């Protein structure tokens, strides 16, 4: 049985925390590795360098949408391919634990589960699109 009194806060907390994670990872690519460095890393994995720029934009757009609660269910699902890409290109071969060299797949997998949970819960009543009604 769910608690309808606290469920809206759970959706808000989940939305904001997932948004922060996407902002942090986009920021890492922008300000630490730089877009050009990220593109070089993608190329070292056998991926097109242009995909790095698409990924950075995708992360920022997803972060903004989740933070504001604009189509949160759709953007939660849209964020999953980024993390699947991270698992299948980098973290999967490193094993389960994220403390392993090159980071394992446990963290991106948990992030995927949280995104799916948000997609199932919905954006909640504290979302921008709900407040506009």
Describe it.
With 133 residues, the chain is mainly α. It contains six helices and no strands. α1 packs antiparallel against α3 (50-68) and α2 (35-44) crosses α3 (50-68). The longest helix is centred in the N-terminal third of the chain and has 26 residues, at 7-32. It starts with 6 loop residues before the first helix and ends with a helix.
How many structural domains?
1
Share in β-strands = under 5%
Give the structural class: mainly alpha
Query: How many DSSP H or I helices?
Result: 6
Element string (H = helix, E = strand): HHHHHH
Q: How would you describe the shape?
A: globular
SS elements, strand count: 0
The low-confidence runs, each spanning 5 or more residues with pLDDT under 50, are none
Terminal-residue CA separation: 28 Å
Mean pLDDT over all positions: 93
Largest sheet: none
- How many whole angstroms does the radius of gyration measure? 16 Å
Helical content (DSSP H or I, runs of 4+): over 70%
């Amino acid at each position: 049985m769910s608690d309808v009194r606290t469920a809206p806060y759970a959706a808000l907390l989940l939305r904001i925390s997932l948004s922060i994670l996407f902002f942090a990872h986009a920021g890492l690519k922008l300000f630490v590795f730089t877009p050009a460095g990220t593109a070089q890393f993608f190329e070292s994995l056998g991926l097109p360098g242009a995909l790095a720029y698409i990924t950075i934009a995708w992360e920022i757009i997803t972060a903004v949408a989740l933070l504001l609660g604009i189509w949160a269910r759709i953007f939660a699902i849209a964020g999953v391919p980024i993390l699947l890409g991270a698992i299948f290109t980098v973290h999967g071969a490193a094993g389960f634990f994220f403390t392993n060299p090159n980071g394992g797949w446990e963290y991106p997998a948990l992030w995927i589960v949280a995104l799916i949970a948000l997609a199932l819960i919905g954006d909640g009543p504290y979302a921008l699109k709900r407040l506009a009604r």
